[in-house]
């Protein structure tokens, strides 16, 4: 009778499988905005810039001023822009990097947050100098 071997190898984690288990950027940002509105005295505004739209809706928004790369949230009293990314997947586009770099040169504070917990930690403990995903 053949014996079965017990496989000790770990299952590979792919970007697709991680994406299914990692909360969406929408959920992370929504949770952060809820936290902000309960705990912070100043305003925070969302900048709706991405998303799937019809060609007509996209055209209307472009002529109204929609611009590629603009970050997700703005806190005017803190002169601060915040860009949300999913914890384990996602990356800044070149347009987002360019937008953030230009804002830094103008004197704004810029946070790239890899999830809600990371955004809160940076607000409470200091903004990371790097926009790369923390390990």
Quick recap:
The protein is α+β, with helices and mostly antiparallel strands and 135 residues long. It is 40% helix and 13% strand.
Would you spell out the secondary-structure blueprint of this structure?
Elements: H1 15-21, H2 25-39, E1 45-46, H3 55-64, E2 73-75, E3 80-85, H4 94-105, E4 109-114, H5 116-125
Tell me about this structure.
40% of the residues lie in helices and 13% in strands. The chain is of the alpha+beta class and 135 residues long. A four-stranded mixed β-sheet has the order 1-2-3-4, with helices on both faces. The longest helix is centred in the first third of the chain and has 15 residues, at 25-39. The protein is globular. 17% of the residues are buried. Residues 3-11 have low confidence and may be disordered.
The number of distinct β-strands equals 4
Q: Helix/strand-derived class?
A: alpha+beta
Cα shape: globular
Radius of gyration: 19 Å
Number of helices: 5
Q: What proportion of the residues is helical, as a percent range?
A: 40-55%
The CATH topology: Trna Endonuclease, Chain: A, domain 1
User: What is the mean pLDDT?
Assistant: 85
Distance between the termini: 47 Å
Strand order of the largest sheet: 1-2-3-4
Describe the main β-sheet briefly. Answer: 4 strands, mixed
Question: Approximately how much beta-strand content do the residues carry?
Answer: 5-15%
Low-confidence stretches: 3-11
Domain tally: 1
Query: Which CATH architecture would you pick?
Result: 3-Layer(aba) Sandwich
Order of helices and strands: HHEHEEHEH
């Amino acid at each position: 009778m053949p014996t079965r071997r017990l496989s000790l190898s770990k299952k590979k984690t792919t970007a697709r499988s991680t994406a299914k288990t990692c909360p969406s950027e929408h959920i992370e940002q929504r949770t952060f905005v809820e936290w902000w509105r309960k705990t912070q005295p100043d305003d925070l505004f969302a900048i709706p810039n991405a998303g799937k739209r019809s060609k007509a809706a996209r055209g209307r928004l472009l002529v109204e001023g929609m611009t590629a790369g603009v970050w997700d949230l703005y806190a005017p009293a803190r002169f601060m822009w915040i860009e949300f990314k999913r914890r384990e997947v996602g990356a800044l586009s070149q347009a987002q990097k360019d937008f953030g770099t230009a804002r830094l040169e103008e004197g704004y504070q810029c946070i790239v947050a890899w999830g809600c917990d990371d955004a809160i930690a940076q607000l409470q403990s200091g903004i990371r100098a790097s926009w790369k995903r923390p390990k």
